[in-house]
């Protein structure tokens, strides 16, 4: 993988926090969608209304991103979360969907198999923050450290929601894991 692509991939997943970024000391709310206790996390708005949270005290870069699609219309709006999860009824369908989600999150012009290797480590369905979700763990190898993406995807209020946790594989200590667990336990979908 060339150096500039590797730098772009890492910076897009685990960019450093700019000086003077806001620090949350209470629950962050996006009315009608979710609430999350972001104490100990730097908050930064992403493009198209995404929220990026970066761990302040973690031993290596840890980032969580919460994204919503525009409201679905027409035929895409038919069927909600139950129908979406119903289409992921086989291990093969889950694997393929997870691969598509990871590939869509990579920087443009990234060639899977040439620039990066992707391994879907786990796929499952769960309930997080009161919402039934599809979740997966992907390992992304760009020739340096392996990035682990742990994501959940669902349909909420006729929008696709994706919550992605990114960090270097094997880089978390127990206190980092506790901070991440506390953050996800605080996540509540409206």
Please describe what this structure looks like:
The protein is an alpha+beta fold and 190 residues long. It has four helices and ten strands, in the order H-E-E-E-E-E-H-H-E-E-E-E-H-E. It has helices spanning 3-14, 81-87, 91-105, 174-186; strands spanning 27-30, 34-37, 41-45, 51-55, 62-68, 117-128, 131-141, 146-156, 159-168, 188-189. A seven-stranded antiparallel beta sheet has the order 3-4-5-9-8-7-6, with helices on both faces. The protein has a three-stranded antiparallel beta sheet with strand order 1-2-10. A hairpin with a 5-residue loop joins strand 3 (41-45) and strand 4.
In short:
This protein is an alpha+beta fold and 190 residues long. The chain has helices at residues 3-14, 81-87, 91-105, 174-186; strands spanning 27-30, 34-37, 41-45, 51-55, 62-68, 117-128, 131-141, 146-156, 159-168, 188-189. It starts with a helix and ends with a strand.
Jot down its keywords.
globular, 10 strands, alpha+beta, 25% helix, 4 helices, disordered N terminus, 190 residues, 37% strand, 3-stranded antiparallel sheet, 7-stranded antiparallel sheet
**Taking Cα atoms only, what radius of gyration do you get, to the nearest Å?**
16 Å
- Biggest sheet record: 7 strands, antiparallel
Question: How confident overall, as mean pLDDT?
Answer: 86
Overall structural class, as computed from helix and strand content, comes to alpha+beta
Which shape, going by the Cα principal axes? globular
Strand order of the largest sheet: 3-4-5-9-8-7-6
Beta fraction: 35-45%
Number of helices: 4
Q: Which sequence of SSEs, written as H and E, runs from N to C?
A: HEEEEEHHEEEEHE
Give start-end ranges of low-pLDDT stretches.
Answer: 1-25
Task: Report helical residue fraction.
Answer: 10-25%
Number of strands: 10
Q: N-to-C terminal Cα separation, in Å?
A: 42 Å
């Amino acid at each position: 993988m060339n150096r500039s692509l590797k730098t772009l991939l890492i910076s897009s997943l685990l960019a450093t926090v700019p000086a003077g970024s806001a620090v949350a000391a209470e629950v962050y709310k996006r009315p009608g969608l979710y609430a999350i206790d972001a104490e100990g996390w730097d908050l930064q708005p992403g493009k198209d209304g995404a929220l990026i949270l970066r761990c302040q005290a973690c031993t290596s870069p840890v980032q969580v991103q919460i994204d919503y699609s525009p409201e679905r219309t027409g035929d895409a709006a038919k069927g909600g979360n139950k129908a979406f999860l119903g289409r992921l009824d086989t291990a093969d369908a889950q694997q393929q969907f997870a691969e598509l989600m990871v590939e869509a999150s990579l920087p443009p012009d990234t060639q899977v198999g040439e620039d990066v290797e992707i391994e879907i480590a786990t796929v499952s369905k769960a309930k997080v923050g009161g919402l039934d979700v599809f979740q997966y763990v992907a390992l992304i190898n760009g020739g340096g450290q392996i990035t682990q993406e742990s994501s959940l995807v669902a349909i909420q209020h006729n929008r696709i929601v994706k919550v992605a946790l990114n960090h270097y594989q094997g880089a978390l200590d127990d206190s980092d894991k506790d901070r991440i667990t506390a953050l996800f336990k605080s996540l509540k979908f409206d």
